[in-house]
Each structure stands twice: as C-alpha cells, then as structure tokens.
Amino acid sequence: MADDKAAQLCSLWQARLGDSDWYPFKVVHCGTDEEEEHELVIDEEDKKLNDLNEDFGSEVYEVGCTSLKELNECNPSGRYVVEELCNFKENHKASLKEAITLLLKMLPN
Q1: What are 27's strand-pairing partners?
Q2: Which three-class secondary structure string do you get for the chain?
Q3: Where in the numbering of this chain does the Factor of DNA methylation 1-5/IDN2 domain appear (predicted)?
Q4: Residue-wise pLDDT tens for the chain (109 aa)?
Q5: How many other C-beta atoms can be found within 10 angstroms of the C-beta atom of residue 49?
Q6: Model-level pTM?
Q7: Which of 9, 15, 35, 64 is least enclosed by beta carbons within 10 angstroms?
Q8: Using an 8 Å Cβ cutoff, are 81 and 15 in contact?
Q9: Is the dihedral of CA 8, 13, 19, 21 positive or negative?
C-alpha cells in the first residue's frame, strides 16, 4: 500500500516538474543600477511547492526545488529530463575529462 502511494506521488510530481505551464520562478534584480543583472529564483510563495513542504518536510521540498532548477537550467521551454554525467563523490556535474579518466581506469591493462 505504501509503495503504491509512493509511486503515485512520484508520478504526480514528475508530471508537475515537466509541466511548462507551471512556472514557480521569479526574476530578482541582483546587480547595481549600472549593471542590470537578473537572477531566476524559486518563488517561495508558490502554492504547489509550499504544499510539498507542508506535506513532506523541508528535505523533500529542497529536493523538489533543486530538481526544478536543474530541469529549468537544462531546458527551460519544456523541462524534460536530460541525461548528464555526475560525480556523486564530489557532488557536481562531471566534466568530460573526469568521465574519460574513469573509463580509462576501468579498462583492463
């Protein structure tokens, strides 16, 4: 029963994350008057994200926000999943050099 509920919630949020009509971001000014710089940030007043926080806590909320930011960074028009290399040990996107180095280490001598 719990597994079914978890699968339903994952499907629901996967659909929400990919919904380009839902735009839980806002633009904030972050430069001086001479330099017009803007940054796209999560809208803390977004109802769906606030409901996520209330229902499941701050850790799940942060994961949802991180997912939104990453999807929007890769493809803001559709927010569909794009595969990328990750270095989980150092918690960052892996460079091509890191990937090649790892592959070379994995080759038999």
Answers
A1: 40
A2: CHHHHHHHHHHHHHHHHHCCCCCCEEEEECCCCCCCCEEEEECCCCHHHHHHHHHHCHHHHHHHHHHHHHHHHHCCCCCCCCCCCEECCCCEECCHHHHHHHHHHHCCC
A3: 2-107
A4: 888 888 898 898 888 887 878 889 998 887 666 667 788 889 999 999 999 999 999 999 998 898 888 888 877 667 777 778 888 888 888 899 998 998 899 998 7
A5: 19
A6: 0.68
A7: 35
A8: no
A9: positive
Amino acid identity for residue 77 in this structure: S
9: Cα separation from own chain's centroid: 17
